[in-house]
Amino acid sequence: MTKTVDFYFDFASPNAYLSHKVVSGIEERTGGKFNYIPVLLGGIFKATNNKPPMEAFFGILNKNEYQSVEMQRFRERHGIDKFKMNPHFPVMSLQIIRGAIGAQKDGYLDKYIDEVLKHMWEEPKKMDDPEVIKEAFTESGFDADRLMEQMQDPEIKAQLITNTEEAVKRGTFGIPTFFVGDEIFFGKDTLWQVEELLNK
Fold first, then answer.
1. What sign has the CA pseudo-torsion 3, 112, 12, 146?
2. 103-125: per-residue pLDDT in tens?
3. 191 FRET partner, CA 20 to 30 A, in 24, 74, 149, 169?
4. Which CATH architecture has domain 4-198?
5. For 16, how many CA atoms within 13 A lie in the half-sphere containing its CB?
6. What is the pLDDT of residues 148-159, one digit of tens each?
7. Where are the domains of the chain?
């Protein structure tokens, strides 16, 4: 059994943040490695005719309220205490997920993910405003000017489109999605199944 998990990832999803916070523990317990693949959640929704939960469940009595309860239970179970709902939600993640492709090319994707998630879901900012993004990059010690340039690089734009299209072809319809070999798992609540499979 492969020990690599492909994690289709976008900063726009609070559940991607929550999943990220438990990944290191799974890696330690299983010896597996999560391979983060930046994709655009909005592009996935468009390609699959999917909708975000707040829209999909609009008008369904008690459904969104239950989602909040379930999220709180996950946080308590895994000791995730820094999460704050971004007051600007939904944040359009196109620029910062392009930045992830740039960081990946320059060899610091892991740090980039940690820092941008902090700016999105721990010290929440309007991370679709270019001025706010640049300030956040500077605060994190990144080369903000280079990242801002990379966001407009045609090759990086094309790579993000390719990543997103390939994710949909594999069966992805939302974020977070995980693949162990050809086995697909959707949502943070399937991570125990991912871990179980890695341990086989």
1. negative
2. 999 999 999 999 999 999 999 99
3. 169
4. 3-Layer(aba) Sandwich (3.40)
5. 27
6. 999 999 999 999
7. 4-198
